[in-house]
Amino acid sequence: MPRAVITGVGFITSIGNSRTDVERSLRELRHGFKNVEFLGNPRIAVRVVGAVEGFATDSPNWRDWTYPERYRFAPEALRSVSPHGLYALCACEQALEDARLGAADLSDGETGLFCASAGSPFLFHHHLRQLEEARGERGSPMGMVSSIAGTLNFNLAAHYHIRGAVCGFVSACASSSHALGYAIDEVRLGRQKRVLVVGAEETHAETVLPFAAMRALSVNPDPGSASRPFDRRRDGFVSSGGAAVMVVEEAGQAAERRAPVYAELAGWGQAGDGHNVALSHPEGAGLAQAMRRALRDAQTPPEGIDYVNAHATSTPMGDRSEAAALRAVFGAGGGPAISSTKALTGHALSMAGVLEAAICALAVRDGFVPGCAHLEEPDPACDGLRLPLATVEGRPRAVLNNSSGFGGSNVCHVLKAFSA
Amino acid sequence: MSQAHPVPPPSAEPDHNPREKLGRLPPAALSSYDEFMGTGSEQALGVLVVEVLKYCLAKNLDQKADVRWVEDARLVEDLGFDSLATIETVFFFEDLFHISVSNEEIAKVKTLGDLRQFVRGKLEAGKA
Predict the structure, then answer these.
(1) N or C: which end of chain A has fewer CB within 10 A?
(2) Known catalytic residue: A347?
(3) Tens of pLDDT along A80-107?
(4) Which residue in the set B57, B84, B91 is minimally distant from A138, CB to CB?
(5) A299 neighbors A339 (Cβ within 8 angstroms)
(6) At A320, which CATH number?
(7) H-type helices in A214-351, by residue range?
(8) The pTM is what?
(9) Can you list the positions of beta strands (E) in B1-128?
(10) What total of structural domains would you count in chain A?
């Protein structure tokens, strides 16, 4: 069976807009949070966000946007994207350069594109309001393609002339993990030589505040402690956005191109909780099953895993449930090092899965395990789990990346150090 | 030729605060808008149409250095418009003047001059 490897990554994130900056933040446990006043309303309790730097995308009109000078996109590329589409374009450019791929490589029909985002509630709202103000008589022709879920794949497929498999994935916070899982399959089944996997999100009020309405967000105003997965005092997640991109490639093809390999994507698994529309199963039943399936697919016993990048978003219930699932799979005591890098990045929603898989890729290639930032009082629910406070040097043999989304959708990937 | 789908008259007066919509364009756009609304000057409308076309054109202008913004310049062949950019231009005028344009009408607009005359005709029809 063909093997799937990672040959490129790209980051536009709250903790850095390049691989080197992201890795430095991870190693030094530097978070990417700042205070924000949503909608200019000081009465809104949510005061912390993990926003990207170097971009100004507050206007619904792309002509007003600014972005880092190293990127240049034609108006044609920008007129139909939302802010997270711009982040994704930038992250794609990084990943393609990293993987040493040129424009011609992407339109060979053997390259696919799998994307995940929630669409742009910010831009969609703007366009619907415009339509409403005109009493339905007229609206922007870019309203749909720039803002509905799928906007990423519509735009990126057109921009990069992708002629292979193109698809968007919608499973909330597991979306880009699904995109990556199916990309692995696409390569292992021999259907594609490579797949670009893209996740992106915005931190505009329209994306963030609906989660406050669900009481899912932290109201801790301190950027240094609002996101503290597995800590006893955690009170919700901190929203984040940006874009993360991964180039998944067939190992032989990568070798032929002499492309450097980060890690092998050795397997993945998924399972539903069958429990609740928004809440995790109290014992993490679906997540535990997804982990077992991923390990079986990767032919790796639990003892072979050195690090787990947990989904843990810093919500009271979600982290507890994941702790139970981790204990069910790895036992209590002596298991792998576990951390949730959402303590540093925030929770990037649809984008979280591929972002954290890319973080795992850095860990495997460059030999470190990010510690549990902001963890001061571990929740007793985590008893028996190994939660290193500081970054651990050393190359993990294999790592597990966990994700969970609304409806109890759980997806896990196994990444391994690659040997031909 | 009769229209298959006649467009009902606009439901509102032209935009009384065009500054927001024209604010991103060069100053000539707003001044020509004001002049056209005040005097009905054909020339002023011509300037406005060119500025809006430049604004909505998705291609980098420097890629088409030979672009000539003349009456008989064809939107697609000469100016490099694709259908999305054309629809965006039409929407800009719809939104600015609160008019509605049908698909059949869009299909008839081929040149810069067509567009200017079309906008003028629409506004006159709205007043009638």
Answers:
(1) N
(2) yes
(3) 999 999 999 999 999 999 999 998 999 9
(4) B91
(5) no
(6) 3.40.47.10
(7) 251-256, 285-297, 316-330, 342-345
(8) 0.94
(9) none
(10) 1
